[in-house]
Amino acid sequence: MSRGKIKFIIAIAAIALTLAYLVYGGVKDTMVYYLTVEELKERIPSVYKEKVRVSGTVVPGSIKKDIDGNLEFKITDGDQSIDVRYKGIIPDVFRDGVQAVVEGTYTPENVFQAKILLAKCPTKYEPANPANKKEST
Predict the structure, then answer these.
(1) Using CA atoms in the order 55, 56, 57, 62, what is the torsion angle rounded to 10 degrees?
(2) What burial class does residue 85 get, using C-beta atoms within 10 Å of its C-beta: 0-12 exposed, 13-18 middle, 19+ buried?
(3) Do the beta carbons of residue 82 and residue 102 sit within 8 Å?
(4) Which residues of 56-71 are buried (b: 16+ CB within 10 A; e: fewer)?
(5) 7: domain range?
(6) Are residues 49 and 90 in the same domain?
(7) Same-domain check for residues 8 and 37
(8) How far apart are CA 59 and CA 98, in angstroms?
(9) Percent of the chain residues topping a pLDDT of 70
(10) Could you tell me if 96 and 58 are in contact, meaning their C-beta atoms sit under 8 angstroms apart?
(11) Do 86 and 23 fall within a single domain?
């Protein structure tokens, strides 16, 4: 092989390795652990200040909003619950009993500081007025 071909192969390999490193670094930085409430509590204290996602059901009667736009509520997995604090855009479907996913950090004060709040849409379609429902013939 000539020197030109060897230099070309080395340059291509260097570019490929650089791209692979950048992709790996980008994916690693955006990866977030997805936990249940129970799994989160099992990881105390190692989970403190670690960016995680937690899924659970909003505990009925726990939602509190203040005039500054802060939202406090609890989510549960049925056995255990955690307190959540969030400031930001609240999804339209967010209410008591809805499945919610929060992303943020769990603090040593045992409060989840959410940066992202997602509420799962109901999966069952119900017509607004069942009386208007046409019967099949």
Answers:
(1) -100
(2) middle
(3) no
(4) bbbbeeebeeeeeeeb
(5) 1-31
(6) yes
(7) no
(8) 9
(9) 82
(10) yes
(11) no
* Mean pLDDT to the nearest integer, 82-105: 89
Report whether pLDDT(136) > 70.
no
Could you tell me the CATH number of the domain that includes residue 55?
2.40.50.140
Domain-embedded: residue 2: yes
User: What does pTM read for this prediction?
Assistant: 0.65
Say yes or no: 73 and 21 in one domain. Answer: no
43 pLDDT more than 70: yes
Pairing between β-strand 64-65 and β-strand 81-87 as defined by DSSP bridges: unpaired
* Type of residue at 47: V
Q: Tell me the pLDDT of the chain averaged across its residues.
A: 82
HEC states along 60-101? CCCCEECCCCEEEEEEECCCCEEEEEEECCCCCCCCCCCEEE
Token pair for residue 126?
Answer: 């119900």
Per the structure, the count of domains in the chain is 2
SS3 assignment, position 43: coil
